[in-house]
Amino acid sequence: MRLVVKRLIDYGFFNESKSLTDTAKHLYIDSKEEETVLKEVLGDAAKGGALKENAQEYTEA
Fold this sequence. Notes:
Elements: H1 2-11, E1 18-19, H2 20-26, H3 32-47, E2 51-54, E3 57-60
Antiparallel strand pairs: 1-3, 2-3
């Protein structure tokens, strides 16, 4: 999942603000477990400086 999120960042997916729900839909995630993992990975990317998090929306840093 980390590699997928990194590629989305590289591709410019987060040039515009995206919510967790928007990102999950884009990745065809439909289970709560997968969504939880995605949320953790996005949070880690925000902590690492690759993304900015604002009210559960993510944009490229």
